[in-house]
Amino acid sequence: MKTKSTIGLALAALLGCSLVHAAGPQVNIYNWYDFIAPDTMKNFQAETGIGSMYDVFDNSDVMQSKLMAGRSGYDVVVATGDLLPNLIKAGVLKELDPGQLPNRVHLDPAILAKMQSNDPGNRYAVPYLWGTTGVGYDVDKVRAILGPDAPVDSWDLIFKPENLSKLSQCGVAMLDAPGEIIPIALHYLGLPYNSTNPGDYAKAEALLLTLRPYIRYFDSSKFITDLANGNICVVVG
C-alpha cells in the first residue's frame, strides 16, 4: 500500500506559567495520544527526580488552539512541523538553549536541514520522530468483500467510490488530519501534493466528498484499537 512520508513531529519548548504548583520540580508535557510507552514518565521521574504532568491530544487543531490561546502552562509540546511557523510567529514558543541540549549533536543533519523550512536555524524545535500515513486493512474482510484481486497495493482501494462503498459495510475510518489527507488526494489525482493552485484543491475536495458517505468516522487514535478488534476493516492513518 502506498504511503505518504512525513518528517512531521518536533519537540518544542513553550512559554507559559505552571499548570499546577508541584511539591518538587515538574515538567508539563502535551503530546499526541499513544506516542510514548505507559511507563515512560514513571521511569523518567525515577531516573531524574523530576515529576511530570502529561496531557494528550488527538487532533492538531485542538492542540494549536490551546497553545494560541496563550499561557498554556506546557513546558514541552509535540507538534507537527507544518504548525511551527504559525506558533513561532504567534510568539508562543520559547527559543531553545543549545547548551541545555547536549545530545543535539547526535541528531541527523539531513532532518535538521529539512526542518529549517518551518523553523529557520532550528531555534525552536528538535525532531522527535517521523513516520508515514498509509492504509491499514483487515486482509480477510477486504478480500471477502472485494475478492482476491482487491487493490490493496493501490490508493484505488480508498479513492474509488465503487470500492469504498462496498468496504463501508465492515467499517472505514480516516485520519482526522486535513494536512495529511488532502495532499494524498492531490497526489492520487496526479497533482502536486503541495500545490498553490486553488483549482487543484477544488478537485481534491470534490474527490473527497464522493468518499464522505462511506467513512464511518474521522479520528487520530480510535482506529488503532478498532482495527485490531475488528470494529472497522480499513483505515487511512
TrEMBL record:
Pfam families in the cross-refs: SBP_bac_8 (PF13416)
One Gene Ontology term, aspect cellular component: periplasmic space
Leader peptide range in chain numbering: 1-22
Highest taxon of the lineage: Bacteria
Gene3D superfamilies documented for this protein: Periplasmic binding protein-like II
BP terms from Gene Ontology: polyamine transport
Coiled coil: none
Protein name: Polyamine ABC transporter substrate-binding protein
Originating species: Pseudomonas fragi
